[in-house]
Amino acid sequence: MALIEPEDARLAKLEELRRLGVDPYGGPFPGTNPIRELVQQFDSLEGSSVRAAGRIANQRDMGRAAFMDIKDWTGVIQAFFQLNRLGEEPFQIQKQLDAGDLVGVEGNLVKTRTGEKTIFVERFRVLAKALLRPPEKWHGLRDREKRYRRRAVDLFTNEEVMDCFLTRSQIIRAIRDYLQERGFIEVETPMMQSVPGGAAARPFRTHHNALDIDLYLRIAPELHLKRLLVGGMQRVFEVNRNFRNEGVSTRHNPEFTMLEIYEAYGDYTSMMQLAEGLISHLAQDVRGSSALPFGEAMIDYCPPWPRRAFWDLLDERLGLQRGDEKRIRQLAEQSEMEGAASEPADLLAFRLFEKHVEDSLMGPVFVVDYPKSISPLAKAKAEDPDLAERFDLYIAGMEIAPAYSELNDPQEQERRFLDQVGAEDERQKLDTDFLRAMAYGMPPAGGMGVGIDRLVMALTDQDSIRDVILFPLLRPTD
Q1: Which of 140, 134, 66, 138 has its CA nearest to residue 96?
Q2: b/e map 127-154, b = 16+ CB within 10 Å
Q3: Is the pLDDT of residue 166 over 90?
Q4: Rounded distance between C-alpha atoms, residue 280 and residue 146, angstroms
Q5: pLDDT averaged over the chain?
Q6: Is the model's pLDDT at 137 over the cut of 70?
Q7: Is 412 exposed, middle or buried (CB count within 10 Å of its CB: 0-12, 13-18, 19+)?
Q8: How far apart are CA 377 and CA 397, in angstroms?
Q9: Cross-strand partners of 292
């Protein structure tokens, strides 16, 4: 049984093209103009010869002539095929084309009598014969599950999907430009690590055959980037892929993209300023406005952004006050949380915050002053040592960017790591090489991780992370 089942009519046209001496999967067609430029610059280009290539979106057969809409990733333009202009044999080749086929055309750019900007085709080349019909007569895939599974078709049939991913690319490029203009350098750190660290998450494990050792896919690049601070690199960032062996939801994908930034001699307040400047720049320069819609809300990215204390928000929403362990455990039980009787109270409070508070934070808003016990890589506040110099930036009800004044005391870091792992036989999970590097002296620093996928969601008004990841992880259909 064939893996694909082409349509009989298209197979017949494929064979006819070959009979006419045409390669249905032709060679290159260089020197093309982006279709958007042809349309936008029509007044200066009118009458000149142009070349364009793309997919046939629509076709209208008129006997001795035919119109086709040719679509590339920038736009759509009409092409006019005429028997008298092309000659008999090329015109017969044109008749073997269908919606979805890829074609290159060359001809003069002219307006038709109805004012339509059109390429009057002098020459053309068949570039790829489509053996399957585009969905719903080119109206695009509408079933979301099918869209994710057939992303190739989703991109060329749904213009808004293509626009979203082109915008994502622009956002990432603008992030790099913004940081490099401010003296940050881009670096790369290992994606396979012998000890997973830098975040609390379940890793994916793999095995290196040549060395006969287990390795872990990176859950965060943080500890390697801090090694670079020790080495004297004062401003570094990495646009990185992280992997966490956890749940899948509209806000979580096991493989995701993060921006990690570290600045020597800064702290979490300098990271607040950097976040405000960077993200407001993306809104204005990439999306064209400092106020952008998300669902029914309008989010204003113009800084400064408010700072709200973690415990104040819990008190406002749940009547939950710092230090009230009995009430915390009661609410955790009512919320049917695992470990409500045994987990540390601060950790339960954080989980209650995630469950009951974060969805309401349209922001942008910095949530500050988290418990130190759930922030093992952050410095304690001098005036209140039970709290950490940490913020989480929330936009559109999503945590977008956690940041710390980075802990740079190696002995305190070791104590916190040991408190985290607890049992003696769990200590092999600690990154002792990182602690050794810290012992040579790590400068005070601010560090921040920005969830690129969620940030793109917020800036492009997408309600699912699957709509901003080209190939999200999906359950197999079989």
Answers
A1: 66
A2: bebbbeebbeebebbeeeeebbeebebb
A3: yes
A4: 34
A5: 92
A6: no
A7: middle
A8: 24
A9: 299
Give the number of C-alpha atoms closer than 13 A to the C-alpha of residue 365, restricted to the C-beta side. Answer: 18
Write the burial class of residue 222 (CB in 10 Å: 0-12 exposed, 13-18 middle, 19+ buried).
buried
Q: What is the pTM of this model?
A: 0.91
Task: Give residue 444's pLDDT.
Answer: 96
Cβ atoms of 50 and 119 closer than 8 Å = yes
Among residues 240, 149, 135, which one has the least CA distance to residue 471?
149
- Express each pLDDT in 261-279 by its tens digit: 999 999 999 999 999 999 9
pLDDT band at 328 (very low <50, low <70, confident <90, very high): very high
Provide the residue type at 402 as one letter. Answer: P
Rounded CA separation 252/244 (Å): 9
User: Residues of the chain with pLDDT > 70: what percent?
Assistant: 96
- Chain position carrying tokens 């940030």: 455
Buried/exposed code over 260-297 (b: 16+ C-beta within 10 A; e: otherwise): bbbbbebbbbbbbebbbebbbbbbeebbeeeebebeee
Question: Are the C-beta atoms of residues 104 and 53 closer than 8 Å to each other?
Answer: yes
Cα–Cα separations (whole angstroms), residue 69 to 66, 79, 99, 175 = 10, 6, 9, 36
Q: Identify the three-state secondary structure at position 291.
A: strand
